[in-house]
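Hello forum,

I keep getting stuck at the same step: I have a sequence, I want structure tokens, and every attempt I make locally crashes halfway through. Rather than fight my setup again tonight, could one of you with a working pipeline run this one for me? It's a single chain of 123 residues.
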Amino acid sequence: MKYICLAYEEENKLNSLTKNEWDSLRTETLSYVEDLRRRGILISAEPLQSIHNATTVRIRDGRLSVTDGPFAETKETLGGFFLIDAADLNEAIQIAAKWPSARLGSIEVRPIEVKLREESRYL
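Reply #2:
Ran it on my machine without issues. Output:
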């Protein structure tokens, strides 16, 4: 089953790392990505640019609204994602728990919907 893992991070916390700490975290992350790819678990992984480069788009009453920044003000923001193929939720959780930045933020693990449902979006 496919799971999207959303990596939430505090930009200030990451920006306060020393060069050696950042290099270590980056190397560990890239190594873990390569391990997951080699094992056929990782489908895709991408980091996101800073929330300072985010734009939120809404349509209300037929009118476009564009706002700089993320949808909500929070301490932790979406820093990237990785899409995995795991046997079940327990395996997906174990994979997410080993993602290096989970020590600094959090990883939301969510199953991928096979198709858009006819009866209702969320049940």
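The chain has a mean pLDDT of 92. If your local run keeps crashing, start a new thread with the error log.
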